[in-house]
Amino acid sequence: MVFYFTSAVLDPAYTIYMGKDKYENEDLIKYGWPEDIWFHVDKLSSAHVYLRLPKGQTINDIPPEVLIDCAQLVKNNSIQGCKMNNISVVYTPWANLKKTGDMDVGQIGFHRQKDVKTVAVEKKINEIVNRLEKTKAERYPDLAAEKESRDTEERNEKKALLNSGRSKLKTFVTRIFVLSVLANYSSLMKTENMKSNQDGYDSDDFM
């Protein structure tokens, strides 16, 4: 089971999701999207919360209001963290999550520590948590199928872009060729480059 939330502080709204337990977290780690940003309470046990960004946006493009929503949600879903003030929440792109065979279920590391960011959470803000909880929806998605569909769509987009580039290049080369031919033809048709029988050559003058 995966829980979905909607952060509607901005338009368009952002989708936030998290697994029910550490076993769902394993699937989320495995089938995350490049657009996903992972959140977790630093140094404490908590839910794995993901923010799905629109294509083209990066971790640096997260609006402050949405960042606060994610941080409040992950804090609220930490057994220890929800009772504490002045905690830190770490977040990083899904692609930076590192999972090795010797790790426990739900445990992860990072490929590059420098790509991990931190946001301070002073205290729980009930207004934010309550707003997000009202949007909560329980679903049983086929994460593998959704990931494959997303990747197939991206491959098709890249293929279409490549074909478009080839078509434009072909059109450009053809245009250059035509212009070159026309330029040569114009040069040949110039008066100084033209000859007539009056130039001393008569094709009917036989010996």
Could you please describe the fold and organization of this structure?
The protein has helices at residues 22-30, 64-76, 126-133, 143-188, and strands at residues 2-7, 14-19, 36-41, 49-52, 87-93, 97-98, 109-110, 117-121, 137-139. The chain has 207 residues and is of the alpha+beta class. It folds into 2 domains: 2-141, no CATH class; 143-188. The strands form 2 sheets. The protein has a 7-stranded antiparallel sheet. It has a two-stranded antiparallel sheet with strand order 6-7. The radius of gyration is 31 Å and the shape is elongated.
Q: How are the secondary structure elements laid out?
A:
Elements: E1 2-7, E2 14-19, H1 22-30, E3 36-41, E4 49-52, H2 64-76, E5 87-93, E6 97-98, E7 109-110, E8 117-121, H3 126-133, E9 137-139, H4 143-188
Antiparallel strand pairs: 1-2, 1-9, 2-4, 3-4, 3-5, 5-8, 6-7
